[in-house]
Each structure stands twice: as C-alpha cells, then as structure tokens.
Write a sequence for this structure.
C-alpha cells in the first residue's frame, strides 16, 4: 500500500458512520473496521496518499468530538502491513523489544518508525482488541538493533505522551519467547 490511514473513535456508532464516509470519499480500501476495547471503534484503510488523506478528513469530520486519534502514514514499511493483517511469520529466537501504548495510532506509528530505523523483525502488532484499548508491538533481532528500534519507536514525534511502557530483553528465556507465538 502506498499509504495507510487510521481513525480511532470513542463511539462505535460514529465509527461505523465514519467508515461509510471514508469508503465513499475517495478510492481507498478498508483493511479493517471493527469495534474493540473499551467500547471504541477502529478503522484502517489504504490507498494513494491524497485519497487516504481525503478519506481521513471525511471520516474525522463525521466523527467530530468522538475521534480519539488519527493518522496518515505515507509509505508504511511492509512489515507493518503484514503485522496488521496478522500474516507476520513467527520470528527466530533473538532479543525482544516490547513497546506498549495507550492508543492504536501510536502503536502503528511506533512500529513503522522502529522497523525503518533498524534491522529488526516486527513479530506482532496487537491493536487494542482484548487488551483494554491499549496496543503493543513486539520486535525481535540483535540486541543493539532492537534497542535502537524501540528507542526510535517510542520517541517518534507522533507517539509522544502515548507510550505506556517499553522494554528490551537481551536474552529472553526460550519458554517466554515461544509463549508469545
């Protein structure tokens, strides 16, 4: 995808209405539109940058004060798209980096920044479902690369104030590592 757009709503009804507006505003493909925890609605769509921006603007206008967060990410890293689509391959054993956020948008921005900053694998990108509206990303790779990626991810300008916690585990126990997948 050339770019992705994301909208997070505090109202499920307004989120569904906004999803309709997003799909009608420009030539975009809705990747997912669903309710999640805690009573929020999440909408991810992709297409050309101008179309994604026009659709995001239309959805945000409908959502009004119910928009929690939004973003357009031009040229997202392919690993981010695979992780969102739940098609990432289980990683090989290596150090772990975990970035946890209060919002879905921050997690997507952080994951994109992280995989662009260092030679790491984005093993998982969990977006709010079943975890109280929080989101997290798990990275694997060599220790120094994971440290750099996590630092870049949590310090991305779009994520400031939204990071809850982050950790790098240089040599995770094999059982802990394997329990994640």
């Amino acid at each position: 995808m050339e770019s992705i757009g994301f909208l997070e709503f505090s109202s499920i009804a307004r989120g569904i209405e906004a999803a309709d507006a997003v799909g009608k505003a420009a030539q975009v493909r809705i990747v997912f539109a669903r309710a999640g925890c805690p009573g929020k609605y999440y909408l991810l769509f992709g297409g050309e940058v101008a179309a994604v921006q026009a659709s995001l603007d239309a959805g945000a206008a409908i959502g009004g004060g119910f928009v929690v967060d939004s973003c357009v990410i031009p040229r997202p890293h392919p690993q981010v798209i695979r992780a969102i689509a739940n098609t990432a391959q289980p990683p090989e054993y290596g150090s772990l980096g975990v970035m946890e956020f209060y919002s879905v948008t921050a997690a997507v921005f952080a994951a994109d920044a992280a995989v662009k900053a260092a030679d790491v694998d984005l093993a998982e990108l969990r977006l709010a479902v079943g975890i109280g509206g929080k989101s997290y990303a798990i990275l694997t790779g060599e220790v120094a690369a994971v440290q750099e990626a996590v630092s870049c991810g949590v310090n991305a300008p779009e994520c400031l104030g939204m990071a809850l916690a982050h950790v790098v585990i240089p040599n995770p126990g094999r059982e802990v590592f394997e329990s994640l997948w």
Notes: The radius of gyration is 16 Å.
